[in-house]
Amino acid sequence: xxxxxxxxxxxxxxxxxxxxxxxxxxxxxxxxxxxxxxxxxxxxxxxxxxxxxxxxxxxxxxxxxxxxxxxxxxxxxxxxxxxxxxxxxxxxxxxxxxxxxxxxxxxxxxxxxxxxxxxxxxxxxxxxxxxxxxxxxxxxxxxxxxxxxxxxxxxxxxxxxxxxxxxxxxxxxxxxxxxxxxxxxxxxxxxxxxxxxxxxxxxxxxxxxxxxxxxxxxxxxxxxxxxxxxxxxxxxxxxxxxxxxxxxxxxxxxxxxxxxxxxxxxxxxxxxxxxxxxxxxxxxxxxxxxxxxxxxxxxxxxxxxxxxxxxxxxxxxxxxxxxxxxxxxxxxxxxxxxxxxxxxxxxxxxxxxxxxxxxxxxxxxxxxxxxxxxxxxxxxxxxxxxxxxxxxxxxxxxxxxxxxxxxxxxxxxxx
Length: 415
Known about the structure:
Elements: H1 3-15, H2 18-44, E1 45-47, E2 56-60, H3 62-74, E3 81-84, E4 89-91, E5 95-98, E6 106-110, E7 113-115, E8 129-134, E9 139-142, E10 146-148, H4 152-155, E11 165-170, E12 173-178, E13 181-183, E14 190-193, E15 196-201, E16 204-206, E17 217-220, E18 223-233, E19 239-241, E20 245-255, E21 261-266, E22 272-286, E23 292-296, E24 301-317, E25 321-324, E26 342-355, E27 359-364, E28 371-383, E29 391-395, E30 397-406
Parallel strand pairs: 1-3, 2-4, 3-6, 4-7, 5-8, 6-9, 7-10, 8-11, 9-12, 10-13, 11-14, 12-15, 13-16, 14-17, 15-18, 16-18, 17-19, 18-20, 19-21, 20-22, 21-23, 22-24, 23-25, 24-26, 25-27, 26-28, 27-29, 28-30
Helix pairs in contact: 1-2
Protein name: Pectin lyase-like superfamily protein
Organism: Citrus sinensis (Sweet orange)
């Protein structure tokens, strides 16, 4: 732009000179549009660094995170975004990001690392959660960043008396969590509770095999939850699906080490359980203690139904296919009961691989309430030890076997 045009903008526009009038209008409109876009960006993004976060891994950045979230949650923007930048490690004490928010499409761009305090004594929360999201609709978390639970000192003591769940979603809906890392959780890595329409994609969850009770993802009292294209290594279940859940989908997951993918445990205190419409497909289990597992306590009532485990591959798995209706977390302390959870319509389809134990299929159903409508189809399991065979074992289990089934089915006929 020439000096004459600039002079026209700042001088002649006010006098209405025709020669530059059109240029004045265009320049002013362009300037205004630029300012509007800049202001819109400012209103849309909430960088924790702008709220006093340091990001050196030692300074407590909890307050900055709380302030940034509160402003993002209150913002009138269509897609407010909280920014946690790359190349920084933020020490954050237990914190809950509460809704509801003004926008039903709020994002967290997690590109850096969020690290938990060092051990139980450094936590100030009595509820055993580190990072929690509560009562939020339309939450999106992405950015290839890391939640580091810093759990080593927790693992050295009883986690039952010192629970420490890393990332929790409580009463959330329409949530999408993509390309996020969660590691070294004190206990469970990710919890979904009392939520619906929550979807995980491309998660990497990682803790040592020896870390106690470090489930990868635990789902309870929730509906329409999916886990897709993820890698989970943990000291407990890769995914555990608990009571009052329905429409759960797990697809294209690598599990191991860990305890497999479990429905349960259910019915510990004699409650009426309800779990239905669970689909687990295209899962690789690598040296896990269990593969596809359903576990219930004798005291439980209610039902588990409409379950599918399909397109599974097992590598040196101790119990590739297992139903355990006598689950007990302490030896010889669970009394016999006259109750049981009814397990019905469970399908095991297209499974291959190796078993690290002699019994590759173990369907140990309740004496009081039989398992019904169990289906085995195209199962090809062999021993992980060359030259050994594998067996199937059934108790009070009714259903059918179709196609190839190795080891040979032990199901009783439904009729």
